[in-house]
Amino acid sequence: MARASRLLALWALAAVALPGSGEEGDGGWYAFVRPVILQGLTDNSRFRALCSREKLLASFGDRVVRLSTANTYSYQKVDLPFQEYVEQLLHPQDPTSLGNDTLYFFGDNNFTEWASLFRHYSPPPFGLLGTAPAYSFGIAGAGSGVPFHWHGPGYSEVIYGRKRWFLYPPEKTPEFHPNKTTLAWLRDTYPALPPSARPLECTIQAGEVLYFPDRWWHATLNLDTSVFISTFLG
């Protein structure tokens, strides 16, 4: 089954690059202009075991981590011990909190201090010529997430929990407030969107990977307390 999933993913990311093989009008370059969910590509069971709450606290509890605010531009940074973050801040999101009042551990990783963990992670076996992948590791509570933003292409894998994604192509700017959390957007804005203004949506389960194309708008919502890692391509 894993082999079949791997072959399907290879087809999705490579074979569809042939002109005319994709949807009408997209020139066949599906892998470069559409998100793709990947399954069964790598075995990260060892990495998953090392990402349990007990293992992470034992290995990194006294390490200082840098938190970002959960808004579009993430201006504010706060440093505190990892154990303090887990024990005091890793709780379900308050729907009334603004993004700049919500601290989120994702992206600002000290690669030297976390190298003993990252060396056990196997990213998807696809990349961009002339670029080196960069990891962003995160842990967040249920209901947390980042509102709409965009950047270069990459992958996002869920290790524990589930993560819901909302995506728009680059030419379609979503309706959102940069300081409102994704949870608030889902409650206040999403229900009133007409069908033509709805985003592409998916929920990534533990062990699944989402490929997000270059400059696509996206917002995320952790449905459970979640551990996740992104691989940015270039």
From TrEMBL:
Cellular component terms per the entry's GO annotation: nucleus
Domain JmjC: 101-234
Chaperone is among the record's keywords: no
Signal peptide annotation: 1-22
Alphabetized UniProt keyword annotations: Signal
GO molecular function: cis-regulatory region sequence-specific DNA binding
InterPro entries, per database record: Cupin_8, JmjC_dom, JMJD6_ArgDemeth/LysHydrox
Keyword Ribosomal protein set for record: no
Pfam families, sorted: Cupin_8
Protein name: Jumonji domain containing 8
Species annotation: Rhinopithecus bieti (Black snub-nosed monkey)
Gene: JMJD8
